[in-house]
Amino acid sequence: MRPSGRDLSEMRAVSIDTDVTKHAEGSCLIKIGDTHVLCTASLEERVPPFIKGSGLGWVTAEYGMLPRSTSSRMRREAAAGKQGGRTVEIQRLIGRSLRAGVDRVALGERQITVDCDVLQADGGTRCAAITGGWVALRLAVNKLMKAGDVLSDPLLSPVAAVSCGIYAGQPVLDLDYPEDSAAGVDGNFVMRGDGRLIEVQMSAEGAAFSREELDTLMGLADLGVQNLVAVQKAAVA
């Protein structure tokens, strides 16, 4: 029995509310169970120096957790004077995941920055940030298309992510914090809406896992991502 009482292949409740901030070109609040992430997308008519003049666009991301997004207060990273290694790793993951669903030629020489701020954490914050980040990106690109600033849709496919793992000896979908903190195997799966893989992060937190167990977790991840993609499409319809 999972701590939440969910079936092994059952996700937490998922909701995405769009246009939740006034100024960002695209924004949403994604809730996956008790994990809540605010995602905003900002358009800029410039690109980083390393691709300037190439005609290619760029999508990047920043990620952060509010001090009381967890059970005890965390110190703001700005107060510490630098980002932690976990933060840097996650925001790089978000950025490259979202770029995998973008035709950067069609986007043109401009940058979209997706900011993901964790309001409340209960496991799977990076997956929620990627899933909500795509919705914010979609809304920002819609504004570009409506204004005629791009000739064709630069978004190739939705991008979503979900966690899977082995908890109490059983493969489970969408780990919450009690499961994540006690999982023998923990993984994050980033996929496009067409089923193509973008990134898989798997690690044995306890015993090593078999190829058969990996295949089972892949099947659960595919099920979860298709569920998330359906919610994404409904949110931006």
TrEMBL record:
Alphabetical keyword list: Nucleotidyltransferase, RNA-binding, rRNA processing, Transferase, tRNA processing, tRNA-binding
Q: Key word Zinc present in the record?
A: no
Q: What class of enzyme is it?
A: transferase
Q: Which InterPro entries match?
A: ExoRNase_PH_dom1, ExoRNase_PH_dom2, RNase_PH, RNase_PH_bac-type, RNase_PH_CS
What chemistry does it catalyse, as a reaction equation?
A: tRNA(n+1) + phosphate = tRNA(n) + a ribonucleoside 5'-diphosphate
Q: Which family does the similarity line name? A: Belongs to the RNase PH family.
NCBIfam families (alphabetical): RNasePH (TIGR01966)
UniProt-recorded name of the protein: Ribonuclease PH
Native organism: Thalassococcus arenae
